[in-house]
Amino acid sequence: MYFKRHDGQAVTCDDFLAAMADANDVDLSQFALWYSTSGTPSITYSSTYDKDKGLYQLTLSQSSRSDEPMLVPVAVGLLDKESGAEVVPTTVLQLKEATQTFDFPNIKVDVIPSILRNFSAPVKLKPATGVVDETELAFLASKDTDGKKNVLLCIIYVKT
Predict the structure, then answer these.
(1) Could you give all domains of the chain from N- to C-terminal order, each with its CATH number?
(2) Which of 4, 24, 117, 133 would give a disulfide with 146, using CB separation of 3.0 to 4.6 Å?
């Protein structure tokens, strides 16, 4: 649709965004905040697991220089904490609020989240506690199917 509308023309980011919104029949106005907000957004995460209910919850919070929350696509997978087997394959969560909790029902084992798979968003990722669990990072570096990204994250966490 973008090329059909604009082939051979000088266009703007707004033209591109409008074509993508129309082609996918989706409102991208919240996503457009990425174009007008300076700096790199930060995402903090925390999680809980209720074995009795089989419920894993991942809470994500965003902060940026925007006056309102941006749409942040966060690709997440869940790995069995013991074996490293993928329990939940890559799922893209749409973080649209300042803080959101995402439920993953029917989880039978304790898991470790692999967050920002495939570099789904250019953000700074931090644990809500402020303390990086280096054991989990080492686990992700060795077991995650999105290993290249997680090796890079391990290096970044250790260096900072």
Answers:
(1) 2-30 (no CATH), 39-159 (2.60.40.1840)
(2) 117
Chain segment 99-130, per-residue pLDDT in tens: 999 999 999 999 999 999 988 899 999 999 98
Q: Rounded distance, CA 64 to CA 142, Å?
A: 32
Cα–Cα nearest to 31, from 18, 47, 42: 18
Q: Would you say residue 155 has pLDDT above 80?
A: no
Tokens of 90: 């890559």
Q: Residues 1-21: what's their mean pLDDT?
A: 88
* Cβ partners under 8 Å of residue 26, min gap 6: none
pLDDT for 13:
85
> With contact defined as beta carbons under 8 Å apart, do 144 and 153 qualify?
no
Q: Which of 99, 86, 135, 144 is nearest to 117 (CA)?
A: 144
31 neighbors 62 (Cβ within 8 angstroms): no
In the β-sheet with 86-95, what is the strand arrangement from edge to edge? 86-95, 72-80, 111-115
CA pair distance 148, 151, nearest whole angstrom: 5
Which backbone phi and psi does 36 adopt, to 5 degrees? -115, 5
